[in-house]
Amino acid sequence: MTRRAFLKMTAMAILLAPAYPIGAEELLSADPPEEDTPFGRDQQVYSVADDQLKDYFFKVRNPDTPHPDDIILDKAEQQLLGAVVEKLARLCLNVGNGNFSTLGFDEALIIAGRQPFIGSFTNAELAFFEMIYNRDAHDYGFFGAKQVVAFLHVIAANEIIKIPQTGNYLFKGESLAKYSRIKNNLGDDVILTSGIRGIVKQFHLFLGKAHRHGGNLSLASRSLAPPGYSYHATGDFDIGQKGLGEGNFSELFTTTPVYKRLTEQGFVDYRYWRDNMFGVRYEPWHIKL
Ligand SMILES: [Zn+2]
User: Fold this and answer.
1) Is the distance from CB of 238 to CB of 187 less than 8 angstroms?
2) CA of 110: how far to CAs of 106, 114, 120, 156, 205, in Å?
3) Contacts with 267 (C-beta within 8 Å, 6 or more apart), sequence order
4) Least-confidence region, from 48-52, 224-228, 259-263
5) I need a surface site. Which of 96, 102, 208, 285 has the fewest CB within 10 A?
6) CATH architecture assignment, domain 75-287
7) Domains of the chain, residue spans
8) What is the mean pLDDT of residues 56-67?
9) What is the pTM of this model?
C-alpha cells in the first residue's frame, strides 16, 4: 500500500462513520501497512497516522480537556460570545425552560426586542450567530451530519407534546411512541432529561459550553452538537435515572437500574457509542430514533 493510500484510508475511517462500533483497540492494532518499495515498511508514515488516531481517541475520551488542534474564538469574537450567552440566558428566564427548548430564531429576536430585561441582539451579534451556524462543524473535529437545514426553522406547535413533570417536549409519532414504551416498561424510575431542542436552545447549550471554556468551539463540540447538527432537533431524546441529577449526563448513568433494564429490554441503540467516529464523547443516555 502506498503512503497516500494509507493516509487516505485512515482519514476515511475517521470521516465516515461506520454502521457498527469500532473500538480504539481494533483500529490501533491493525497491521501496519506494507510499503510497496523494496525498502520494506514505512514506519514513519505508520507512526504519523497512529499518532493521529491516538489523538482522536484522547479527545473523545477526554472531551473537556483542551487540545492543541482546537479551534478557539479570538478576543473580539469571545466578547460577542459572552454577550449572546448572557442574552440567551435572560431569554430563557423570560420564556421558561419548556418554551425556550422549542423557540425558533425569529421568535427569539422578537421577544428579545420587546423585553428591555433581555435587550435586542445587535447586528454584530446576529452576524456572530450566522457565522457559527454556517461554519462547517468538521473544522472543529465534529463529524456528524447537519440535521436542521434552515437557520430559521420553526417547530410546529401541533407536532409536539409537552411531557408532564419534565419541562421537555417530544415530537408526536415515533419519538413519543418510543418514550412511552420505555416509560411503560420501566415506570417512574426513568425520567426524560432532554427532549426536543430547537436552534435557539442548541445555540445556548453549545455557545454556553464554549464560553465556559475560553471560547473553545472544538471542546464544546465534543459533548454538544453545534447548532443545526443536533439530533435533538429531529426526534432523539435523553433519559435518566430519577434522582441522579447531573449524574445522568455522565458514565455514572451506566451503573443505574434504569440503564440495566434499558439494555436488557433492547432500548439502547447508541447514537454516540464509546470511541465513535463523530468526534463526540460516549453518551449512553442518548436514545436514538
Ligand atoms: Zn442527547
Assistant:
1) no
2) 6, 6, 8, 18, 20
3) 178, 181, 182, 185, 287
4) 48-52
5) 96
6) 2-Layer Sandwich (3.30)
7) 3-61, 75-287
8) 96
9) 0.83
